[in-house]
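Course exercise 7: structure representation. Students receive a sequence record and must write out the corresponding structure in token form. The form below is the worked example handed out in class, using Large ribosomal subunit protein bL21 (207 residues). Read each field label carefully; the graders check that inputs and outputs are placed in the correct fields and that the protein name is recorded exactly as given.

STUDENT ID: A-19
EXERCISE PROTEIN: Large ribosomal subunit protein bL21
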Amino acid sequence: MFAVLKTGGKQYKVQAGDVLRVEKLAADAGEKVQFNDVLMLGGDAPVVGAPFIEGAAVQAEVIEQIKGDKVINFVKRRRKHSSKRTKGHRQKLTLVRITDILTSGADKSGVKVATGSAPAGEAAKAAKPAKPAKKAASKAEAPAAAAAADDLTKITGVGPAAAKKLAEAGIESFAALAALSDEQIAAIETIKVKPEWVEQAKELAQG
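STUDENT ANSWER:
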């Protein structure tokens, strides 16, 4: 019996006793791991997943953590006095031995599911604490605005720019502007509210 499993973005056809080199797993030598992404089970009655077979798994024992063959990356830019660079890379791999192929009951086996270890850069990003949220600009505590925002440009001296700044301060209706106290007006930093605006807002709010 054989199985086709997927790990590290690659597919492998395996059977019990096979030794594989797979992308590095977060497991120590001697530890048993389980691959749950099984695409196909072969044998007398082959089963093909869509894309994976539910309940199927491949179990393996970690032999050791190794590195792959060195890959040379050579870059040369043509033209006179062009630059060139040569560097080598050895991919981190895990050597495993297939021990068993399960056709069902993978979730009840109790074996650790094989997962890849995150690259150093991604691990650092995950460990980095999130930036604190920016403090919101201080605004006056405006009363609850009307259900529909009013056209504040109807007030003499309030243009589109001033209306936008009032909206940023939470004032979007005549009633909200008319209800402002002297302390609330002084607390608004985005725009200087004029007393005549408040008086006109009172009249417009009354209809």
